């Protein structure tokens, strides 16, 4: 047993080392990623299920590491947060997003709202609201086209600063959405305490409906609760026709998920969605 213990320990430390060096490799890459154009944005449609019309898109960040290739944001966003580059990365995302909005306006596509994920670490910063304000003033972009999606996590809870900055952003005309509602740290406490315009129900609650009855009871209670709050509600991770039909019977009208579209680049978004809308 002692022998096994030692082997396990060795295996464990080797595994740790392997993970560490991958993280270090990614961290190093991230430091120069902005300069080397290794980030790009993709867009996932948000749909009104009754008429299948596009109402908005969620902006999602993609990162290509020079040696490791494409890396999931689930892995690299926390590294951006830990190394402190998340603010700069978010500024880049916002500038890029505004650029796209102005471009779409110039091309006379219909208005499509953009949901952008913002780390609570960034919202908390003193200069963030001013940064957004300047960006809006400098470019003349319509701030009501933007919605900031936020989630609390293990390392960052919503402080008084976060709350007051949310209010300031709302005063600028930007909407606030509570992301991943019902999962982990995104819960009733946030609904009670935060200025929220929209609730995004986590995909774990959509995954097994209508198949599993217990899950039906849960999602129906969530919808019942959230629908009383005068917030817009959207379900994420909608993958099947059965889910769409079921959610409509539950009076939930907005969805995002692979059933409608995976995240696509801006060219595909224009070709597949905007041009159709113009006709
Ligand atoms: P999230 O904000 O919950 O984003 C939704 C994730 O679910 C996206 O993964 C999306 O591709 C995926 N998804 C969409 N529809 C479906 C579906 O029908 N089924 C399944 N199984 N998955 C679906 P992605 O792009 O890998 O992003 C993962 C997470 O990384 C995001 O979760 C968000 O927390 C974070 N993230 C991504 N981009 C950014 C960003 O620009 N800034 C920040 N701060 N975080 C970001
Ligand atoms: Ca999100
Ligand atoms: Ca989400
Ligand atoms: Ca998430």
UniProtKB/TrEMBL annotation:
It comes from the Bacteria. Residues 23-277 form the EAL domain. It comes from Falsibacillus pallidus. This is PAS domain S-box-containing protein/diguanylate cyclase (GGDEF)-like protein.
